[in-house]
Amino acid sequence: MDLTELQLDALREMANIGSGNAATALAAMLGRPVDLNVPSAAALPLADAVDAVGDVSAEVTAVAIPVFGDIGATVLLIFEPEHAATLCGFLGVFGDPEMELSALQEIGNILGSAYINAMGSMCGVALEPAPPLAARDMLGAIVSTVLATSATSGDLALLLDSSMMVEGAECEFGFLFVPDQNGVSELLGRLGLWDEEAA
To answer: How buried is residue 136: exposed, middle or buried, by Cβ count under 10 Å (0-12/13-18/19+)?
Structure first.
């Protein structure tokens, strides 16, 4: 199922509101200016969304945030090694695997919570993030473990490619919002942008 340009615009707008809040919170944590934007948004079947994030055999650091409330979901933030290293360097923990994972978990929590809160506010739904979990593994292994209980491969996932500049250094990350069944249509419905008959 393809979303209309209007629907994708609404998803991008949610993401941009979230990214503004995330940039402010992250700048305070890092003690450096942060510029964050979301150039693209897509709603894809879960399997396609994972493929779009990157090579399933590549090692990444991922932060998973369970979401409860009106819509159950899992948020997955994915950092490639070079961008994870840049962020850890800013926090002075690069080279200490345990501290790196802890730092990225907190960064992922700040970013993910900001996006979740923006979605909830804009759509008028209660979305409550739970404590995050961080792991370093192959992308495919992380996705299959984290999302095994929360979604089926045919469910729609919201994919946001996020581009972040921290004091001139590029730190991209992937953001996947994987709601329980029909979650994307529920969000768009709250905005008056979902036609059941057209779907």
So the answer is: middle
For helices 5-30 and 183-190, angle between their N-to-C axes, nearest 10 degrees: 100
Q: Average of pLDDT values for 117-136? A: 93
Alpha-carbon dihedral sign for residues 19, 22, 24, 27? negative
What is the distance between the alpha carbons of residues 190 and 1, in angstroms, rounded to a whole number?
19
pLDDT of residue 50 exceeding 90: no
CA distance 99 to 110: 17
Q: Which residue has the tokens 């590029």?
A: 170
pTM: 0.90
Query: What is the 8-class DSSP label of residue 64?
Result: E
pLDDT on residue 162: 83
Separation of alpha carbons 68 and 83, rounded Å: 29
Q: Which residue has the tokens 């305070």?
A: 28
Specify the pairing of strand 34-45 against strand 127-129.
unpaired
Q: What is the mean pLDDT of residues 90-97?
A: 94
Residues in the chain, total: 199
